[in-house]
């Protein structure tokens, strides 16, 4: 329903704008400072190694952070993120400031390791695409993994393979019918 999306968008606009335009600034400044006096290593092997390492560490860190966000110690901040039942790209940043800051650690991960700046840019692009397009696509086919998480909270904390290995996966689409 387009009217429901407009209403949800209007309610979330100030919080999302604040998170994206203000709260993210210190994280990107830190990321930029990590590259002061950086001399790139042009080895293809090193770049490939850094990219693979970024994906492995990034996906696992995102899973662990999401588990922490659902813990009894942090959920009081994270529950704001789950209040909205409308899922579209903009809403992925409708978070409490503490919740958003934890999410930003994953975004700037390659910069924290001083990996090649191209890796950092690729990771940010991949991460944003996954969060805003794939996860927040409110289609039962494309965004099903995250949609189940957003509905049930106790399943699908991260990448499908990690959820499968750690037995936190659910593919029961009937859970979405309660949404």
Topology:
Layout: H1 2-33, H2 44-69, H3 75-83, H4 97-107, H5 109-112, H6 117-135, H7 144-152, H8 160-165
Helix pairs in contact: 1-4, 2-4
Descriptive overview:
It contains 8 helices and no strands. With 179 residues, it is mainly α. The longest helix has 32 residues.
Give a brief outline of the structure.
The protein is an all-alpha fold. 65% of the residues lie in helices and 0% in strands.
What distinguishing features does this structure have?
179 residues; 8 helices; single chain; mainly alpha; globular
- Roughly what fraction of the amino acids lie in strands? under 5%
Average pLDDT score: 86
What is the overall number of helices?
8
Structural class: mainly alpha
Radius of gyration (Å): 17 Å
Give me the count of strands: 0
Any idea what the shape is?
Answer: globular
Uncertain spans = none
SSE string = HHHHHHHH
What oligomeric state do these chains adopt? single chain
Helix residue percentage: 55-70%
Q: How far apart lie the N and C ends? A: 14 Å
Largest sheet: none
């Amino acid at each position: 329903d387009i009217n429901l999306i407009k209403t949800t968008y209007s309610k979330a606009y100030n919080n999302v704008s604040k998170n994206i335009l203000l709260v993210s600034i210190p994280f990107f400044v830190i990321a930029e400072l990590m590259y002061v006096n950086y001399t790139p290593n042009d080895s293809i092997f090193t770049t490939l190694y850094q990219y693979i390492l970024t994906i492995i560490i990034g996906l696992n860190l995102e899973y662990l952070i999401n588990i922490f966000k659902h813990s009894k110690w942090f959920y009081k901040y994270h529950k704001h993120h789950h209040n909205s039942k409308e899922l579209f790209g903009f809403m992925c940043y409708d978070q409490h400031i503490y919740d958003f800051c934890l999410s930003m650690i994953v975004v700037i991960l390659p910069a924290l390791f001083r990996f090649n700046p191209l890796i950092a840019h690729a990771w940010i692009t991949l991460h944003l695409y996954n969060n805003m397009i794939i996860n927040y696509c409110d289609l039962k086919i494309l965004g099903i993994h995250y949609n189940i998480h957003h509905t049930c909270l106790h399943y699908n904390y991260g990448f499908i393979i990690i959820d499968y290995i750690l037995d936190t996966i659910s593919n029961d689409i009937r859970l979405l019918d309660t949404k």
